Amino acid sequence: MQRKCLPILALALAGWILLPGIGDAATPAANAPSLRIHTASGVVEGVRDDGLAVFKGLPYAAPPLGALRWRAPQAAPSWRGVRKADAFGNVCMQVPGAARAAGAGDVGPMGEDCLTLNVWTPGTAGATRPVMVWIHGGALVFGAGSQAPYAGNALAERGAVVVTLNYRLGPLGFFDHPALAAGSGGDVNFGLLDQVAALKWVRDNIAAFGGDPGNVTIFGESAGGQSVLALFASPKARGLFQRGIAQSPYGIPSHTRAKARAVSVEIASASGLDGSRATGEQLRAIPAERLSQAGAIKGNSLAPGFAVGDTALPQPILEAFQQSRQAKLPLIIGSNSDEATVATAFGLDPAAVVERLGAGRILLKPLYPGVSDDAELGRQAIRDLVFTAFARRIAYLHSQRAPTWRYYFNHVQDGLRPAPAGVGHGGEIVYVMGTADACRCLAVPFSTADRKVSRDIGDYWFAFARNGVPAAAGAPAWPKDSAKRAQVLEFADTPTPRANFMQARLNVMIGALKGIGGYLGKKE
Predict the structure, then answer these.
(1) Which of 222, 271, 292, 335 is catalytic?
(2) Catalytic residue among 227, 425, 428, 454
(3) Is residue 289 flagged as an active site residue?
(4) CA 91, CA 107: separation in Å to the nearest integer?
(5) Is 90 exceeded by the pLDDT of residue 319?
(6) Does the pLDDT value for residue 523 go beyond 60?
(7) Known catalytic membership, residue 38
């Protein structure tokens, strides 16, 4: 029955973008962080923001233009004088308006010259603060590090140096046309290589911003959470970070190189070229806007998965974890209570999914006692098949190699109760980042109770980044998850540890998925 759901779920995820404490206090004006920093490429000058120093639009690699399109990122060029860092850089190319249509707001001006990052720091002199590098979501086709829900102020006020980044998306970030084989070095996941390049920039430059290059936490949601797991699995990222937080990664399998090549040929055809016969010169001459539009045609996208078999991702993510080849580093992983919004936001009817199961409904319903409505049954099944079971599977495997903590975010905003069925895909982000009041991205404002949840989860995240153990003052201890004892911290009105959370249901789902060929890890 899971096979019947796969094409619909993959399509829904492929078109989705995410929705949108206590450490050091803000530095007094007399000891304010410097706004001029010497980087490896030259001097940059940031701006002051309530005691923090903020640097926007810093290039971490050369613009991937002309001959550098579909190549691994190259070193950023140097400059003379002082470079102003007071405005975000271009957003990487994507379909115009897609982020707004998906409820994430306008991402701003786009361009192929987009490999920039942003830094929020509470202090730049003589400090070695934990570094937190945020990787945005958006199915690998939408989004930007400059979006308002991702602002690093709240985590920086706790004492972290926060970095957000852009990486190449869609056909410009994930492409495998045969004409490029010689010049690309066999790579296809250029967007993932961009993330690696950004982490190398952090390693080489972040000390000047007050950060500790030996204490870097990567974290992200949806495609960003999937990227965290991919970086754990990637040989290219070894030694560039010390721990990770994967928020709502999904059990949609990556693609084979054959699939990636077929899609890339179709994109060439849709861009007006002669499919597989197109030359590298012709491909690099296609306007970036036309490529983005061609990649949005149904069937012409690899989203939301990576391609397997290049230097960045030699094997599927789950396979790497199964074979204990992932980085042996602490990990937090989890998901939300209504992740099916990723499907329903794009027209998928959960009741129709259950109806398609036919006789399979008899097997599904006992896993959800008390749920009689097919729409609700479908929502919960989609959530658990794609997200909850996958998080448990990864946690189970990783806990045998390194400390692992698992969460389930279930705090519905006070002002929205009792309407929502739970917390939708991406709904935890403003709590983690502490941006609910500033982002102007919520239907109703936060209440005192909402702010308490935000403070708690932000404290857990910051403590994990600081010393590798998630903890929050006045909040419960977070037990590790393990192969022997399943443990989850549920973020509801108060954080609540739960043993054997959904255990029977998740065991059945994981067993069934493995039995039909490993939907959560099988290559397409």
Answers:
(1) 222
(2) 425
(3) no
(4) 7
(5) yes
(6) no
(7) no
